[in-house]
Each structure stands twice: as structure tokens, then as C-alpha cells.
């Protein structure tokens, strides 16, 4: 930014005005020009990196340092070195393993159906449609609903005594399900909120990728006698592979961070602990409970760091799976 | 008017328009052209009734919870808690909206969210366009590495740094203050990438060169050449960022409190047992969503287009 202000005033925006101004001024203006060409790009990308470094990168790294200390919420500037005590405590804490498992099961329950449904929806939207704009916008509308509002609505739809879902189940002869206290029912309900909010968004990503597939690939497949289903498997899915990987990565990250849905689904006091028996407490909730309910910021940092490790493990696994699959193919 | 003359399969950019034309010009037997087509040409297939039914179900799945929010918000607590649940709106909508507005202190929350989302969206658009322009059209050392870094930052969930971030904000005296929510999200990697993709295609190199020959410095080129060209994607990025910022929950929930909340934070108060009236809870949820819904009704098509555009190469 400083570069732009140091360039000469725009008195002669036309040519560099070599006549009259003299050789010294000319040299100065070429120097400024070169400085501008060299420096401006860095100035333009700098804001992004400065903000990221200050508010994302630095906190992430500092998290690991805090996790080696005992820090209380009321006295944030008092840090007592405890080495790896927080980590051993976490390792021996049943709530951690419970939260890890819940994060994993809710993650699978929400991500797998979500992406499969998105794939199907994208395929449908890829037809020549009347009212295609309506269907696309309708699919994306849940994305405009905040976690807060969505979770409130679904909490009510899943209500045990008067909820709409239980009423519909009763029509087909299924007894009322206690979606709050039954572990798997609660996790399914929470996953439904996630699925509802993100399926349309992912479908649009897939749709965009599908539209970029050259049509002659389909024609070639058709000439080879491939049925529509075969075309979908052999042309469409490989054609949007990179987008599928992208959405898997994004959804996985989202799943490991899950927080708002279970918090609000728990309706208040039970929200932070993820139900009366921690039956749907995720790692995100555990982090919050340690830090802001038990006032142990060091412990909270340890949970955050464990979440980061989990992500890294997941990506290594994903890489390995990809490599094994590639070798087989 | 033979089947041959109808450009059935040449439809490229806008299948919709071509379809309309052929419909108009086609003879009554024009539907038969389906028979002459190759058995399967990808996206050119017209949707059959099954596809419409499935899409209808998908749309219902998407929209019904929102519709029902409105229904529940317009009845009263006794009606909501009866079985079968209500399917049609009742007479109490405005009354409930008014009460929820008071009980959840939504007025202040709305204003806060408007400020937070507005500032974040503005700064994201500005910085993303600047950086996107540099990455797309300016040559500099380390450009590719820096771009890879930008993309890499998308993989780091900001939630992981909340503990130090919280300590930092307390130190700065920003606890419970809006700047604590605004500053960490002033930029977005997705935004930078989005603008880069757009500008590398839409902005001809010659225009930038011409500006240079005319002696314009980089910021001036940005101002008078890039900005006018990038107006449409900037608007889309603004809306998408606005939606994200408005709905952001984890960090605002941690750093703000009920005396100074954003909308999603204020909504948790509705679930936390302060309000037991179910229709009031739904009225609050509806209020908190309305601004974004309004935006979707007006600009839905553009937002959809923007998300798809950002995705193709993403």
C-alpha cells in the first residue's frame, strides 16, 4: 500500500513525460515504477497473510504451548508448567475416548449419507429441467439457515412426545423414540441436522463439476453400449473425482469440529456435556466444557491439539487408502 | 422443419434457451426426435417424471423445516405440542415474533450480526480481490508457493486455536466485544482463490499491459481496470461471506455473551430454558433466519451461480 502513495501524483498519466522534466526525474520515476511492479504484488497479498498469521497460525501453534501448562480461565496470565500432565490426564479420561468415538460415529452418520445424497441430487439437477433455478435455490436454502435456527427446529421435530418425526413414525406403527436420551437416536438426529444443512451445497459443487465433463465422453460410452447407470459410474463419477475428494476433505474437517448442533440439540444444561450421559458429546463440546465450564484452559488446549492430531491421522489414512486403491486399479 | 434441422445436440452454454426454441419450432411430432438421439448423452437428457418426483422430494426435504418453523411460530404453545402437529399457519405470527424479539434481545443481536457480517464481507471482498488480482495477473517471486499456502490454510480449522485466541482477545480488552469476532475473519482463503480463478479468466492480460504502458501504477490498475470487471463476482463473494459470517457460531459463542450477542448466540438463549414456549422459540429461530432468507429469495440464483463457479476449479 505504501508503494502506491509514493508513486508520483498522476499529473501525467499518459506517457512517462521524458521531455521537460529532466533526466533525474525520469530516473526516479523508472525506479518507482520498478518498485511498484516488484513490490505491489506482495503488498496486495500481504493482508491475507498478516491476518492469517496473527489470528489463525499463531494461535494454532501457541495452543501446543498452552497445552503443556495449567492455566485457569479466571487467571489467564498465570501459566504453570506441567509438562505432559494434561496429555496423560486426557489419555486416561473416559470422556475423551467417549467424545472421540462420538465424533467419529456422528461424523460417519452425517458425512456418508450427505455426500451420497448430494451425488444423487446433483445427477438429477444435471438433467434438462424446467424450473432448474427453483430446485437449485431450494436445495441451497438450508445452507442459509444458521446452526442455531436449524438445530432449534430439528430439536422440536425430534421431540419425544409431540415431535413431528415421532408422529410420522407412529403412523407406521413405531413407538415414540426418545431422541434425546437414546444414544443412537440422538446421534442420528444430530446427523440429520448436518445432512439437512450441507447436502444441497455439496450437490451444487458436484453439479458444477458434472457440467464440466466433456459430452463426447458420454457419447463414446453410449456407443460402447454403456447403460445410463454404467455411464454414471464410469464417466460421471471419475469425471468429478477431484471435487469428490475436495468435499470429503471439507466434510471431514467439519465433522471433527462439530459443536453447535449437539450443543443446541441438548437444550441448555445438557448441551455442553452432550446429553446426561455424554451420549453425544463431541470433541468440540469437550473442548468447551474443559475450558469454559471447568475453567481449565490448559486442558482445553490439549483437547484442541488432540483434534488437530486426529485430523492429521485422518488425512494420512485417506492418503494411504487412495494409494492402495490406485495401485489396485 | 425436419428433425435434422433442429439443433438438438448442439446445445452448449445454455441448454434451456435452445430447448425453448426447439419446442416452439418443432412440429407436433417433434417429440419423436428423442428416438433418434443417442441412447444417453449425459446432461442433455430431459428429466423424466421420476426425476421430477425425486427432485420434488428433495425440495420438500429442504424447505419443509423452514415452512414448519413459520407454522409453529404462528400458533401457540398448546397447539404446537399437540399431536398430530399443526401443518397450517395459525393467527399468532406477529404477536409471537414481537415477543421473541423481546425475550431473546434479538434487536441488539440483529444489529450486531449486521455489523459483524457486513464488515467481514466487505473486508473479505476487498482483500480477496486484491490478492486474487495479484495471484492471477501479476508476476512475482514465490507466487506459486504463496498460492499453495493460501489453499493450504483452508485445511486448518480456525476452531483449533480458540484457547490462545481467547487469551489474546482478553489481553486486548476485546472480550465480549465485536472486534473479537470481526478481526480473525477479515480475510478468507476461499475468497482469494475464488477471485483468482475469476480474474485469471475474465481479465485479459492485454488490459493490464495497456494500463502499464499508460504509466498507471498497480493500485490504479486495480482501481480502474480490475474493480469494474470484477463487480459481479465481488457481489457474489460478498453475499456468500455474509451468509457465513452471519451464521458463524463456535467462536462468537465463546467470546461473546448474552449482553452483546450475535444472532446465533442469542438463539441459544431460546434453547437454554429461559423460554419454554415452543412457538416463541420457533418465532425466534424464524427471525434469526429471515434476513438471509430474504437475501436468498432475491439473489438465490446469483448465489447458486457463485458457489458453482467457485467449485469448478476448486
From TrEMBL, chain A:
Biased composition (Low complexity): 1-20
Keyword set includes Cell membrane: yes
Domain ABC transmembrane type-1: 100-318
Signal sequence annotation: none
Pfam family, one: BPD_transp_1
Subcellular localization(s) per the UniProt record: Cell membrane
Transmembrane portions of the chain: 42-61, 99-125, 137-158, 302-321
Matching Gene3D superfamilies: MetI-like
Protein name (database record): ABC transporter permease
Lineage: Bacteria, Bacillati, Actinomycetota, Actinomycetes, Kitasatosporales
From TrEMBL, chain B:
InterPro entries the UniProt entry points to: MetI-like, MetI-like_sf
Compartments in which it is found: Cell membrane
Topology versus the membrane: Multi-pass membrane protein
The name this protein goes by in its record: Sugar ABC transporter permease
GO biological process, one term: transmembrane transport
CDD domains: TM_PBP2
Family named by the database record: Belongs to the binding-protein-dependent transport system permease family.
